[in-house]
Protein: 3'(2'),5-bisphosphonucleoside 3'(2')-phosphohydrolase
Organism: Natronoglycomyces albus
Amino acid sequence: MTSKRDRDPASCHDDASPQPHDSDVALAAALADGAGQKLLSLRNRIGFSDSRRLRDEGDQLAHQYLLEELVAFRPGDAVLSEEGRGQTSRYGTERLTADRVWIIDPLDGTREYSEEGRDDWAVHVALWERARGITAAAVALPAQGATLRSDQAPVPIEQRKHSVIRIAVSRTRPPVEAKSAAATLGAELVPMGSAGAKLAAVVTGKVDAYVHAGGQFEWDSAAPVGVALAGGWHASRLDGSKLVYNQPDPYLPDLVACRPDLATSLLEAIRESL
Ligand SMILES: Nc1ncnc2c1ncn2[C@@H]1O[C@H](COP(=O)(O)O)[C@@H](OP(=O)(O)O)[C@H]1O
Ligand SMILES: [Mg+2]
């Protein structure tokens, strides 16, 4: 099969499409954008009256698009996707011996995607490389018209302090650890959907931190954590240990991300709550 890498770019792509010789991070951003545009179109086309249908079709549409493009542009790489089956699923073993694995969440914040007017949902595309971890990442926020990339840090860290510390949490499952840490620090909780949207709120300065506990998988955090770490933010497990990806079991149930100057006091407040 001819891969898109082998084709003449001018013959088959417009300016917005991924290009065969894109860097990994440029490809991640182009694919996250592409999936995001498809999700916006689907939302416009079928509306919100049948939210289950919108969620299911959105998940599948974005997954299929990302998978086809990754197979075409990076045919030698493995994929771990939330929506995957077989080799791309959490049970697939090909990724465990691969040197390069794309960890994707085609639609993060599925619930919010199916609710009219909400913009807290995202598309995650990250590349994990053996012995290096996450080396390229992009998080598209299609309804916010933004895409965050691991090679382009947003505004300088000093500009992003609030008088009262703001901690983003799940709007449906706010963890007790975050409530307790907020009480210790005199912080306020900011409920929001989607791990990608919450980490984006951290790196763009809308909030100071994101605390999650109680369950999550590698695809929920790989790309947003890749963007945050590349930009100089703190991101770790709640106990302060490193977030490790492409594990045999991709369950990765908790994380904390924040401004680096807040990390010590926030981790300490969380530790007191454990
Ligand atoms: N306890 C839990 N177990 C498994 N996944 C969870 C979880 N809590 C949150 N998540 C996942 O983390 C993402 C962000 O959740 P939240 O908006 O509640 O913060 C969602 O991803 P998806 O939308 O991709 O399923 C959600 O399914
Ligand atoms: Mg998710």
